[in-house]
Design a protein that fits this description.
This protein is an alpha/beta fold. The protein has helices spanning about 5-15, 25-30, 40-55, 70-85, 105-120, 140-155, 170-180, 195-200, 210-230, 240-250; strands spanning about 20, 60, 90, 125-130, 160, 185, 205. Helix 3 packs parallel to helix 4 and helix 6 packs parallel to helix 7 (about 170-180).
Length: about 260
């Protein structure tokens, strides 16, 4: 489940035959010249609506921590996200407070329950993903991560996600701990684990976060550095404008 950051990247990924897409808060923020986490809820909602309208594929929303200070505000944010047409959304347990970056477990569970209730009240079948951010936020505590994921499963999460776990042992432990609920694994770096290997470990979903956006930025950085040095050789790696026009010029009815 790759992560586009704008309409063009979403339509390109659709053309490759992927069956679902997920947004990337980081990729979207960078495309607007901001850091990850520095985009307002209203902007994220507009982005979700735009991507949903751009593709016939189901879109899962990287919905950060639910854009709310308490459970009621999370529920309201989730209702607004569902109105955009997303097929699912993830809620993190990150607090946004540098001094205490992860919500305590009771608070995190209340927030997940509020998200679950909002989805149920909407009457749809949107997938709720519960995210434990320990490994992302400098707390690589696997037992606590598993405890959190189990609590989020009990609170109503349909899928569990601990971005930052990388080893076979970590992934296997998480998959076993929350079974039979599915696990999403993030692969945003070079890894010896192939999609087949992850499937053998019991992983049901794989996303890449901001990795594709970072690859695009990497190409821009290399080409711009060469240009600043008076060279044009990096343009040899550029995509074909003719091919991009042919792909992106298709009328919506044929997509």
């Amino acid at each position: 489940m790759p992560n586009p950051w704008d309409v063009g990247s979403a339509r390109y990924l659709q053309s490759l035959g992927f069956q679902a897409l997920a947004t990337t808060s980081a990729g979207f923020a960078w495309s607007h010249g901001r850091a990850d986490g520095a985009v307002a809820r209203s902007e994220v909602l507009a982005h979700l609506k735009e991507l949903v309208s751009a593709t016939h594929l189901p879109v899962n929303a990287d919905f950060e921590n639910g854009f709310g200070a308490d459970a009621d505000e999370v529920a309201e944010s989730v209702r607004l996200a569902l109105d955009t047409g997303v097929a699912g959304l993830s809620i993190e347990d990150s607090s946004g407070d540098p001094t205490n970056p992860i919500f305590d477990l009771d608070t995190a569970v209340r927030r997940l329950r509020a998200a679950r209730a909002a989805i149920d009240q909407a009457g749809g079948d949107a997938v709720l993903v519960g995210r434990a951010e320990n490994f992302f936020l400098g707390r690589p505590d696997l037992p606590d991560t598993i405890t959190r994921l189990q609590a989020y499963a009990e609170a109503g999460a349909d899928c569990l996600y601990a971005p930052g776990i990388r080893t076979r042992e970590q992934i296997s432990a998480v998959v076993a701990a929350v079974a039979p609920k599915p696990v999403n694994v993030l692969v945003g770096w070079p890894s010896e684990l192939t999609l087949d290997a992850l499937r053998e470990l019991g992983v049901r979903r794989v996303s890449v976060g901001g990795a594709l956006a970072r690859c695009a930025w990497g190409g821009l950085q290399r080409a711009a550095a060469a240009l600043a040095a008076g060279r044009f050789d990096e343009f040899a790696h550029a995509a074909s404008g003719q091919e991009l026009n042919a792909l992106l010029g298709e009328p919506p009815s044929t997509r």
